Prior knowledge:
Elements: H1 8-24, H2 40-47, H3 49-68, H4 75-96, H5 98-101, H6 104-129, H7 138-141, H8 146-155, H9 157-174, H10 180-195, H11 204-223, H12 240-272, H13 277-283, H14 289-297, H15 299-319, H16 323-332, H17 360-380, H18 385-393, H19 401-420, H20 446-461, H21 469-485, H22 496-513
Helix pairs in contact: 2-3, 3-4, 3-6, 4-9, 6-8, 6-9, 8-9, 8-10, 8-12, 9-10, 10-11, 11-12, 14-15, 15-16, 15-20, 15-22, 16-18, 16-20, 17-18, 17-19, 20-21, 21-22
Amino acid sequence: MLFIRRTGVGTNMLKFLHRQQLIKKGLACGKSRRKVDQSPLREALACGWLARMIVFGAFVVGLALLIFTGEQAEPLKKYLICLLVFAISVAQLWVNYPQVFYRNSSLALIYAILFLQLGLIKGLLMLADSGKIDVQLVPMLIPYALAPLVFSVLLGRHLGLFGGILVSLWGAFLMPVIDTVFLVISLISGVVAVLFTLQVRRRSQLVRAGIYVGVAVWLLGAIFGQIGANIVAAPELTDWAMVGWQTLAAFGVGMGTAVVVGGVLPILEHVFGITTDISWLESADLNHPLLKRMTLEAPGTYHHSLAVANLAEAGAESIGANSTLCRVCSYFHDIGKLVKPEYFTENMISGENPHEDLAPSMSALIIISHVKEGVDLALKHGLNERVVDIIREHHGNSLVRYFYQRAVQQAEDARLGGRIMNLRADDIPAVSEESFRYPGPNPQTRESGIICLADAVESASRSLERPTPQRIEDLVDEVISRKMEEGLLDECPLTLADINKLAASFRFTLLNMMHSRIAYPQDEEKGGKGGRPISVATA
């Protein structure tokens, strides 16, 4: 007798065989839905303490190799101070940037780039000690902006400044004697790099930042005597050839660093799972196959998605969230409606409502399924994981209220009819509210919360017959209040101040989108009584 042990593999095999039997009998669908990979190993690598300790330990060891290599004054003392700075950096991340501290890929990126810049500084010092490059060129050849540029573009301006401060402190301790001039030049050039990359939407902006960093390094070098010490007091004693090489080095390294960062950004994004505004803009191409399908198969949903994108982008800008991410995710948030587009109001042909022939529970099931179908399509087409998350979260666990109320009414009518027919109450099926709720989860990020609100506001605005400013204001306030009462925003970091700003932004955007048009008097010459009023077509 063959015995199958009830392990995970055995259970999965039994489920597979049982499913195949159901498919042959026509009692199950052969379609398999794609799922987000949440394996324990991947979870441990992404958020586990062991992987985090490996990142910290590798950096500490690497820092020791840099400090104890070559000729150093009091290397042990310097190393202990550097360890203290490292402990402060970890505490700073833990307290102020928990979203980075608990994501091991971001930690690995931060400390890998910091170590790379420190390694380049150490390499230049060793080349100068060996006589392969002139010592006077070293201050101008250091890529001061490397870590600040990478962090500012990938992780935000706050972490850009954070990285600039850290790499400046550690770099000063790599010098044979602690160098305060290096510290000042490194700090100021790092700040300049961050200031000119506050919002990078084109790679050319990185080159511009590199040019300004080169200017800052050259000016600071001239002020502190790193370039032409006698350039003002005694220009005849100045080595102008060396000044030329130093100038070329300052500008060349600044621009070169920016070009290299721009070139490796796609690799860093892929390896560390980070998406920049540049990549989001590249994803905003309306010629994407899913969006092109939507224009043909679900034009109403396509128009709705564009309107939600406008609302969400403007709202995100008003509270300082990622507006580009909101626009792109809004384009794709309803792609699941491509599976059964005719069952959604915006795509229905006038006079035809397929829900009239369905039970409310079946109608709700079709409506709710567009979330799972959307996740399936997003995974199939390799969309960004943030897009997948927002598809799952933009309805949260909200109630499909219309069909729920319809089901409750039908159940009540059945009870009244049952009393007349002397039927038992147990023979009438109860209406479960859970069957009419989306699976969730609720919005987890600011951007997800913004799209959740924008989607609800835009959908509700379609019912306004005469969209006056007061009606639009009342509608926006009512929709947002209902979402808050349902608890859909409890898990995302939107404050009450943010929600008030979003409401104001939605009102302003809706008012501009739904403005009325001025009608000219009837064309008496051509139309007479039958003439048509002509509207001013100013969109």
